[in-house]
Amino acid sequence: MDRKFLVASQEEIKRGGTTDIYFIRTVDILRKEGRAEAHVDMEITSGGLPYGFTWGVLAGTYEAINLLEGLPVTLRIMPEGTIFKPYDYNGVRVPIGYVSGRYIDFSIYETPLLGLLSQATGVATYAAHLRYHAWDKTLLAFGARRMHPAITPMLDYAAYIGGFDGVSSILSAKILGMRPMGTMPHALIIIMGSQEEAWKAFDRHVERGVPRIALIDTFADEKTEAIKAAETLGERLNGVRLDTPGSRRGDIATIIREVRWELDLRGYRDVKIFLSGGVDIELVKRLGDAPVDGYGVGASLSNARIVDFALDIVQLNNKPIAKRGKFSGVKEVYRCRECYEYLVLPRGNEVGRCPRCGGEMEEMLVTAIEKGEKRPGIEEPKMVRERVLRQLERIKSLGWGD
Ligand code: PCP
After folding, report:
1. Which residue lies with its CA nearest to atom 14 of ligand 1?
2. Per-residue pLDDT at 378 exceeds 90
3. Which of 140, 167, 276, 279 to mutate to test the pocket of ligand 1 (most atoms within 8 A of CB)?
């Protein structure tokens, strides 16, 4: 094979190199059949959300814009980090975006476009649902080890804008402009010969600004190791991490309460408790009132199920047309500023007040590319994350749940 790692280069992605063969054949046929000028409006919608979720967080538009930039197309799309629903108040699919132009100019990009949106939106959505249930906790993305390293930056970016506080991968942290966040592996403790020697060595050699979080499940019971860590590092101990193996996990909520009790009893009230290993939304919900201060989440986040977006023609040469199962015609997409209900209307229809609460409706699609030119307005990840958190605050106040 012509490459060490089985990944597409940025150049190969940019030129549509990963596309499905039938798009190449279709463009060739249309050209030879004199249909090269066919102008289409294509609509991006999702058929639903995984895990029974009722709302999602759109992600991947940053890369989608970079993919299509320079092509003679117009892209109207919801901003990165928008909380969306797959269906509106009337049960109409909610378009998250439109690509318009000559079909042959962009058809081969359907494959990478949907791939960029589907996976990132799946991860950002899962991250946001974790944040929804772990509102005041620290959430760290530990999932770099669970997926192909080529997409580590995308996974961690999606987790971060979905509401996570930090990421453990050094490259992802560099791209996000932040310090990587992590603790210590069991290997350090095993090779140093004891927990205490490992914790002291960590404290001796790791730069000052890095929190001293002792891993406390290597050889002995978490309660025993937590007390030992506190007595070993004293005031310099910031936290303890339980990464309890499944064979010992039992009632992890009670184990966490025991650790909290024993630390507090000995005056270590400021030592935080973190949990990692098999953390997912169900566990976070179950631990709702347990005294856990933060989670390190790996597999459930990196492996979050995709949101399966589709791209469908809804207008051909400005005439409405669509395949069965899709509604023809370009539409306007509105969201209520108060209750976040969606309303989808044929373009040109007047929008009134929110059909659910009477609030003011806000237009959700913005022009990101106009005839190939990228429009200004791409936000930094930090800004996107803050906007996601503001929207999450709103839907929490509305009691949306998952
Ligand atoms: C894992 C490692 C990851 C955690 C668990 C994510 O522990 O600490 O950060 O787990 P998850 O994918 O199930 O959410 P180990 O595999 O024991 O690795 P290490 O000893 O290096 O911490």
Report:
1. 298
2. no
3. 276
d(CA 102, CA 80): 25
Which ligand 1 atom sits nearest the alpha carbon of residue 143?
A: 12
> What is the pLDDT at residue 377?
85
pLDDT tens for residues 102-147?
999 999 999 999 999 999 999 999 999 999 999 999 999 999 999 9
Q: Could you report the per-residue pLDDT of 197-243, keeping only the tens digit for each? A: 999 999 999 999 999 999 999 999 999 999 999 999 999 999 999 99
* C-alpha 9 to ligand 1 mean position (Å): 29
Q: Which domain holds residue 369?
A: 10-122+305-398
Q: CB-based burial of residue 103 (10 Å sphere; 0-12 exposed, 13-18 middle, 19+ buried)?
A: buried
Distance of CA 245 from the midpoint of ligand 1 (Å): 9
Tokens 């020697």 locate to 197
| Same domain (yes/no): 154, 107 | no
Residues 67 and 156 in one domain: no
For 93, which DSSP code?
B
